[in-house]
Amino acid sequence: MLRYVTTNPGKVREAEAYLGEGTVNRLDFDYAEIQATKLAPIAARGAREAYRKADGPVLVDDAGLFIEALDGFPGPYSSYVEETLGIDRVRAVAESLEDRRAAFRCTLAYCDGDGFAASPDPVDRGDRVAAAAAGPADADGDGDGRMGPLPVKLFEGYVPGRIVAPRGDGGFGYDPIFEHDGETFAEMGAERKNAVSHRGRALEKFAEWYADR
Question: DSSP code of 138?
């Protein structure tokens, strides 16, 4: 059974839309979230820690809103910025910009303790960034005798858009101020949003690969 590390049951339902009903369980596990300017090392480190906790296949995601004119801010810090500043302040900053283009990005990290083929986006023992994120071999003292960080497979999803004044009553987080193809995420129904969302696109890639796992 694949465990999706999240406190949000909606993510599990979204994953099952791509993987099949009853194929995913939710794992409520608060892994240590490292500080990084990119999503991949954060998700990879979380997947390794969650795998050791679950002792079985796990899926971890990290996502964020990236505003182009702000060099990708808030990016990996999106949740913290939402909690501390709020989306209204983020929108106010964006309104002062000539270029309001933005993107939602998501990185899914899968770990089951085994190695992977080299495609599409492996993070394995030879990857320096991932190794740094994971720390020294056996640093957690679990005595598994591994000679390097656990291999992790990454799948990325991306959806372009722009920052606008809030519209819509659905969704959560930055959804009301993120417009894609004429609609904000908050104006879309759940099925429509899942079909175009950054997480949905990452899940689609993962499901295609996982079918042969």
Answer: T
- Nearest Cα neighbor of 2 from 205, 210, 156, 209 is 210
Cα–Cα distance for residue pair 91/204, rounded to 1 Å = 30
**Tokens, residue 59:** 């899926």
**pTM exceeds 0.90 for this model:** no
**Catalytic residue selected from 30, 55, 61, 62:** 62
Q: Cβ(81)–Cβ(194) under 8 Å?
A: no
Q: What count of other Cβ atoms lies within 10 Å of the Cβ of residue 33? A: 15
Query: What CA–CA distance (Å, rounded) separates 64 from 75?
Result: 5
Listed in sequence order, the DSSP H helices in 74-189 are: 78-84, 87-95, 128-134
User: What domain range is 21 assigned to?
Assistant: 2-210
Per the structure, the count of domains in the chain is: 1
pLDDT in tens, 48-92: 999 999 989 999 999 999 999 999 999 999 999 999 999 999 999
Residue 194: CATH number of its domain: 3.90.950.10
C-alpha closest to that of 24 among 36, 39, 9:
9
DSSP string, 146-177: -SSPPPEEEEEEEEEEEE-S---SSS-TTGGG
Active site (annotated) includes residue 212: no
Q: How far apart are CA 59 and CA 210, in angstroms?
A: 11
**Higher local confidence (pLDDT), 68 or 117:** 68
